[in-house]
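pinging the channel bc i need a second pair of eyes. not urgent but kinda urgent?? the chain im working w is below, pasted from the shared doc
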Amino acid sequence: MTVSLKNLWKNEYVQTAVVICLIVLVIFGFWYGSQVILNTPFPALAVVSGSMCIPYGNQCDGGFHPFARTLHIGDLIIVQGVNPLELNTDYPDSDIIVFKKPGNPDDLIVHRIAAVDEINGTLYFRTKGDGNGNKWPNTPSPAEYDPWKTDDVDGVREDLVVGKVAMRIPWLGHVVLFMRNSIGLPVVIALIVILVIVEFIVPLLRGRKSREQQKEVQQQP
């Protein structure tokens, strides 16, 4: 039994299949592990709009400003689940939060806390994009806050908050955005198909052709 397993492991196809399976396990393990560690179902997100960007020379790409305190298109943000009571609401140093859009919980919004109201023991966060209206860090007027309403109350109710932005990683979000692009996923699938063909199909065909040639040589008088 042991000898059979050793011989099986020496097979290049088996080794390649095992490596692919390990890569898949690591990716899924990292994702679900991050959800547990960071206490949020969305531990990492890509920034897709410029609402949180302070333009520098009309550029809103994290590649130009990797250490900016605001968010740029193409940033990958690490999100940490947090008790709403522990969020920093002291603008302009307040936390940037990720929350489900009131009225459309399937959409996630990433904006900074501009103010907070407590009504009947429930927190309602008034938010604003850093690049919208009066630019961060200038103090905005209430009229410049996001127009979200929850329960007919201005603001984002505390239970809609997914977490806060703990870190931004410039550039890396472009990979996620490429995957979401109409051409991105087909390209990745095509690359996987090519990899499978190169690693499995081509060697298999070469091996079959080689065996057929050997048979022909043996059959010759």
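so Helices lie at 2-9, 12-38, 173-180, 184-219. and The chain has a mean pLDDT of 77. — does that match what u expected or am i reading it wrong
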